[in-house]
Amino acid sequence: MADDYLQSSTGRNRALTVLHALGLVATVRRDWWQVSDPSGLGSALDFPHGRRNERQAALALLRHLSTRKPTFDGRERVVAIEEIVTLFEQVRENLPRWAAAYGGQLRALAKAAANGLVDAGFLVAEPAENVPEPRWQPTPAVRMWRVRLHTAPGTNSEQKMDTLILFDALEGTV
Question: Which residues are registered as beta bridge partners of 25?
């Protein structure tokens, strides 16, 4: 019943008024609402926090998900663990020492990154009994967030260093 109320003009206006009074920002679409807390005062979530490989991997995965084309009906395509592992293999081609502790364990890193995005509300895990390999359904939040990468100052301009902000610096860079 709450959905019907929010779709009415009275319910929508009241909800937006309350959100505004709380200092929250809402993006309203016909079939979903995205509410954010730009001040961070009401959010317990600090994503990502720190520079651990799992968090860096989660950011790389979020960037990847935000650039994927949706299905013909506008829905997000399910992401399988193989797609995430392939993404991380591509990152490792450019930055071979990144996530060195995960060596041949990129599947474990992929699961950790995806679970980090589940915790942050970007992905929903599919029930394990339905699929043999882990899969996740992206939420509309992957389109609302953007991860922008910048070249670190003082790097060689001939090198492709656009992943430097997400990942540990290469040897010889600061």
Answer: 36
Estimate the crossing angle of helix 53-67 against helix 81-94, to 10 degrees: 110
CA geometry: angle 46, 53, 121, nearest 5 deg = 40
- Residue 10 parent element (H or E): helix 9-21
E strand segments, 96-165 = 123-125, 135-138
Rounded to the nearest 5°, which phi and psi values hold at 25? -120, 135
What's the pTM value of the predicted model, to 2 decimals?
0.62
Q: Tell me the CA distances in angstroms from 130 to 123, 139, 168, one per residue in order.
A: 17, 19, 37
Distances (CA, A) of 89 to 84, 94, 114: 9, 9, 16
What was the pLDDT predicted at 12?
83
- Bridge partners (DSSP) of residue 33 are 28
